Each structure stands twice: as structure tokens, then as C-alpha cells.
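Sample intake sheet
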Amino acid sequence: MSAYPSRIVCLTEETTETLYLLGEGHRVVGVSGYTVRPPEARRKPRVSAFISAKYDRIEALQPDLILAFSDLQANITSELVKRGYPVMAFNQRSVAEILQMIRMLGALVGCADRGHALASRLELEIDSIRAGAMRLPVRPKVFFEEWDDPLISGIRWVEELVDIAGGDSIFPELRDAKLGRDRIVSAEEVRRRRPDVIVASWCGKAVRPEKIRARPSWGDVPAVRDGHIYEIKSSYILQPGPAALTEGVHQLHRIVARVAQDIVDERMRA
């Protein structure tokens, strides 16, 4: 028997991506159907969606560790534990907790040093983005739209990344709300808070900017009026792992910097 898990099933993408970045992708024997990063992981057997799993496929893979995420997968993890499998369910909701998850996962597979090194590299990258954001001429007001019907504002790690990227969330009081239903906001309240930019990421479907522009009374919202509606794919920003701390925050920073410069240019023209 191996000293560390050698047949790992990952029920969400972020642990799959982390294991590959640690050079341990060969340990992964099953992945979520939503996995896109890294591309080579898509060749692994797909054994789950986000809130459902194919237990027969998982059992056929004979895993010695199953990695899950959050209360949303509680029913899956409970069933797998009843079937006798070792399950580690992470529940990271902040940037700091994502980095902690990476270090913990490294230790779980016997490469704690590489886990720590990866997390440290990501911290340096985040610090570089934050330093660049401090040089922006203004901090645009940002509405991160995690879902469109009902309207849901961004989860904590996303709102933290908005801040790191140089923006100010229009719903800072909701960032600690773990459940989507606790981050539901009204269209009228978004309009009242007048975001300079709307960044949308609708998990599982493409963002439709024309749908956002057509919302009643949103024509005078600065983001709509000035054409600052953007999409970041959910695989880059709504997965609480390395993707959000690299490509996700970089995309956010580019968007925020563009809007900040447009705000300054408009003020000068006025």
C-alpha cells in the first residue's frame, strides 16, 4: 500500500488543477464533468456534476481518496463515506482559504514543500496585481454578477479579487454571505448604487450583455450607459483554486484598469 493516496477522485475542478500544478496529475483517476483546467485532465473519466455523482463509476476507479467541496456536496460526501471511502471536503471561501487549501492538498499527497511553494508563488502574483491596482487613477465601482435570475452578487473570494484588482464592490456588506440565496440583490438596488462596471459570470451558461442592457431603468446605470459590461468565464473566476488567483484576477484587473482610464478621460472631456 502506498504511503500517500495514489488513486484520487476530484469532484470539483480546483483540486484537479492544483494536483496537476504540483506535478501529481498522475494520481487523479476521476474528475468532475465541469473540469476544463488543465486540458489534459479532461481525458480522465468524468464521475460527477456539481451536486450529483455517478457512484458506480467512482467505485470502478477504486479511489483511495476523494476530494469534494463545500456544503453543496454534503449529500455526495455523506453517501461516499457510508460506502467506505475516505473523503476530504474542502470549504474554502476566501483568498486566504484557497491558499490554505493548496498547502493542505500538497501535504495530503506527500509534497508539502511543493504545495507551500505553489501557494507562495500565487501570493506573490496577487501582491503584484494589488501593487499595480494602487497606481490606478480611480477605483471604479464594480457589480460582480454571479447569477442573473435572481441577481446574485459575488462570493467572498471574488469580491476580494475585485478589491485586489483595483475596484470597489457595490455590495461589500454581502461578501461574507456563504450561500447564494443570501447574496440575492434587487435590480433597483443595483441601479441605485450606480456601478461603473458590471462583470458577469453565470456558471454553466454564457453571459448575454444585451439582456443586462435591457433591464428596466438600467439605461442610466454608468456601466450600461458607457458600455462597460464584461464577462469572465466561470471556470476562471468561480472555481476557488489557482485559476481564480491567476487568470481570473488578471482578467479582473485588465477590466478595472480600462474602466478607470475611461472614467478619467471622460472627466477630462467634461
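Comment: The chain has a mean pLDDT of 96. The beta strands are 8-10, 28-32, 46-48, 65-69, 87-90, 141-148, 151-153, 168-169, 197-200, 229-231.
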